[in-house]
Protein 1
Amino acid sequence: MFETLPAPKLDAIIALMQAYAADPRAGKIDLGVGVYRDEDGRTPVMAAVKAAEAQILEAQESKSYLALAGDTAFLKQMEALLLGGAVPSARVAAVGAPGGTSAVRQICELIRSARPDAVIWVSAQTWPNHLPLIRAAGLRAQSYRYLDAKGGGLDREGLFADLEQVSAGDVVLLHGCCHNPTGVDLSAQDWAEMAALLERRGAVPFIDMAYQGFGEGLDADAGGLRHLAARLPELLVAASCSKNFGLYRERVGIAMAIVDPAQRDTLAAALAGLNRQAFAFPPDHGGRVVSTVLGDAALRHQWQTELDAMRQRVQENRRALARALRDATGSDRFAGVGHAQGMFSILPLTADEISALRAGHGVYVLGDGRANMAGLSTRNIAACAAAISAVTR
Ligand SMILES: Cc1ncc(COP(=O)(O)O)c(C=O)c1O
């Protein structure tokens, strides 16, 4: 049966994780995989999460199946966290999914069941798993310009010019905040322009929200999403709790369709049906942790404090690296790193420079130059800047 099965190409992020793990050098620096790290390189369990888990362990009396959509409290809390009341609940259909990855996949499946010929427009630089997920669902993808390679900011002109080409019924995938991999986000004015364009073209936005709280703050990071939800008739959302709750391996995500109230129940049933086909019931534990934290004032306060500290640490790392790179290289080539949002930035390096960084200095960034700012610490920023300076000299 499997004689002709081709060996799959290893995902770039997974391949880099493996190469880093196999590197015996003591001073190696991992800026590859997208997880938060503290000053000691650990990805801790948040204290608010630990406390919620203790409560759940104590109180839970059954692990019997829930609904196909998952736990109602989780769905309601996530609706409030993401949408902040921007639209009435009568417009919101949502289901739990195992992580943001599955949420993206389930939304793609929903699109395919409604409109199999829809084109999904994806920013030229994007999370490496977006295109495989879109294609696995049988959909076509088209790219739009995003990063202005010269200045390291948004290629606003290219972005809006490309999106003028979308057809009615096409879907435009946008990162809610902390664009992965560029760290370059839309301003409030860009989001307003985006809403006007999508309305004019009759296209449906699909927001991937994987880093809420890592940009400017929980509400500010959802500003674009909320603006589009309030302004447009239809909106799709895939959100992850992996990063902002540190629940990576628990697999917590939500897939959401915001539609006319008359269609809401159909969408809810369609999403539940897609869950049934893919994994039936979404995992419960992580979602229950999220709803326990968000539903308890003290735990919620504790969680926000911890999340604020994570955001600030990453921002400080980013600014410190930009300063160190300016000092080490004597140029503004890396200035964009200091202005971006969230965990990632694209270091403007050639493929040869990226290889030399890995081989000669044990500094691991992805092949497109994506670097995770959370992988830096006060102990390695100077060494990292010196290595980058050495390979670019
Ligand atoms: C943009 C984006 N979307 C979705 C995800 C998926 O996250 P999860 O680990 O919850 O599946 C990630 C994770 O890195 C991401 O960066």
Protein 2
Amino acid sequence: MTLAFREVQEVNLESVVNIWNACELTRPWNDPYKDIQFARESATSTVLVGIFEERVVAAVMVGHDGHRGCLYYLAVDPAFQKRGFGKATVAAAEAWLRERGVWKINLMVRSENEKAGRFYERLGYEINPVTSFGKRLDRP
Ligand SMILES: CC(C)(COP(=O)(O)OP(=O)(O)OC[C@H]1O[C@@H](n2cnc3c(N)ncnc32)[C@H](O)[C@@H]1OP(=O)(O)O)[C@@H](O)C(=O)NCCC(=O)NCCS
């Protein structure tokens, strides 16, 4: 069973957000539709969808900042997990970055998401000894 990957289209938006919700990746303070729109507006980022039997079953936001690549919102529809689709989705995102000359990915996994951490380690990702800082620019 293989997935076909392509950039997300308008018609897929609801399916993608449904998968992210089902996978508990969305948070009340982040609007996933706005996040997708913003990623699509830039030449250096997008959302890839994985299609299986004409249905969106996986998605990932991928991009780079001119230095490192990053992945966000990686998710496989819960009904289609554990059959290699997550691995294939990461491979598609890595290929997208390689095509654009990116040679290293830095990605963040929420500390409580131990499953995702084990998944990424299985795919050859290593924990970087860094502290991740964040600051919102949309609040006073
Ligand atoms: C993480 C996620 C994308 C994995 O997708 P998946 O389709 O189930 O994973 P795959 O079947 O492609 O697994 C690929 C490999 O990782 C391993 N793996 C997957 N989940 C694992 C886990 N929880 N612990 C250890 N290994 C795991 C598989 O055994 C497989 O190993 P193999 O290649 O040796 O057979 C999926 O569980 C998901 O959508 N989770 C919810 C969303 C999420 O947490 N996303 C990450 C945000 S940072």
Protein 3
Amino acid sequence: MLLRLFQGLGIAIIAIVFEGLLFLYLNSSDASSLAQFGSGGAPAPHTAMPHPRPAAAVRVPVPAGLETPEAVQAGAHLFRENCVSCHGAPGIAPAAQGMNPAPPNLLLAGRRNDPAEVFPKVKNGIPGTAMPAWSDQLPDQNIWSLAAFLHHSRGIQADAFEALSTTEADASPEGH
Ligand code: HEC
């Protein structure tokens, strides 16, 4: 009888811990997609704080050999399609204005753009800012291509960006 009780209690505790972890996991992506909708309206109460971002950046393991020419080019195309409207690019002014914080110019030569940090920021968005989560629109492979491009092509010039982001990908394998 008492044994049953303890067994039941053990299972209940495991279930609660598991639910807690699941909640944290799901919440991390939910919160960022909500930030998309919050960006247009009145500022949320917590934006009154000067630095709503957590101090330590989230980092994820980076796949080996990330920055292939194909990934960089795919990333340039994806960036042109999805990101330039807010972030701009060399030779292209951002169309969207008035965001606070403002979207940084991600292609300046002095940027770090560490793929380990760029990937989670793009996938999950940046809560409390206009930076949306892309996990619903872009598969992880595309987000890695964006991370490859943003790291590899820092400091790219306007004409080079134009060429890289508009030319069709070469279908023939390398060396042929
Ligand atoms: C609706 C506007 C908007 C769009 C579209 C957008 N971003 Fe952003 N992004 C922002 C804003 C605003 C910030 C600044 C957030 C901050 O200061 O924390 C940001 C920040 C970032 C950062 C972090 C920069 C840093 O210094 O840490 C990265 C990386 C990034 N965006 C990548 C992208 C990529 C890649 C895309 C396209 C797939 C994209 N963004 C599309 C608005 C946007």
